[in-house]
Amino acid sequence: QVHFMESGGASVEPGSSLTLSCTITGRDLFGQAWGWYRQGQGTARETVATEGAVWGASYLPSVEGRFTLRRDRAANTMFLYMTDLTAEDSGRYYCNGGTWSEGPLYSTWGQGTQVDVFP
Q1: Across residues 24-29, what is the average pLDDT?
Q2: Strands 57-59 and 34-39
Q3: Is 88 helix (H, G, I), strand (E, B) or coil?
Q4: Phi and psi for 89 in degrees, rounded to 5?
Q5: How far apart are CA 56 and CA 51, in angstroms?
Q6: For the segment 28-82, what is each residue's pLDDT rounded down to a tens digit?
Q7: Residue 21 bridge partners (DSSP)
Q8: Measured between alpha carbons, how far is 105 from 86 in angstroms, rounded to an integer?
Q9: Residue (of 63, 64, 110, 58) closest to 90 by Cα position
């Protein structure tokens, strides 16, 4: 069974940078698509970034150029490097399998990690 453990969220000021981590157990990080998803207060969960097994990453237009998805095979951990954060980036961030077009793959979700951006 796949499990996700997200970390790295914090309360920061606009313009700050954060690095989120997602440690995955029960599945090999390489060999399928994975992604980062977020849910703001009172809003639906949205896809932030995904990366396929062989193709490059895709990003939500509002984060393109500021966020970068990376994987560490040895640690079976996925990262989301976030720069120049704005209030619109606030939300609870989750990782899961899945492609941009198909959305989250697994019904199991981790606890997520909270990002709050405010002055």
Answers
A1: 92
A2: unpaired
A3: helix
A4: -85, -5
A5: 6
A6: 988 889 999 999 989 999 999 999 877 789 999 999 999 999 999 899 999 999 9
A7: 7, 79
A8: 28
A9: 63
Token output for 81: 């490097």
Sequence-distant (≥ 6) Cβ neighbours of residue 106 within 8 angstroms: 2, 96, 97, 98
Query: Cβ atoms within 10 A of the Cβ of 92, count?
Result: 18
C-alpha to C-alpha distance for 90 and 63, rounded to whole angstroms? 12
CA-based radius of gyration for the chain: 13
User: For the chain, percent helix, then strand, then coil, each to nearest 5?
Assistant: 5, 50, 50
**Of 57, 67, 38, 40, which is closest to residue 99 (Cα–Cα)?**
57
- Cβ atoms of 53 and 30 within 8 Å: the answer is yes
Burial class (CB in 10 A: 0-12, 13-18, 19+), 25: exposed
Which runs of E-coded beta strand occur in the chain?
A: 3-7, 11-12, 18-25, 34-39, 46-51, 57-59, 67-72, 77-82, 91-99, 103-104, 113-117
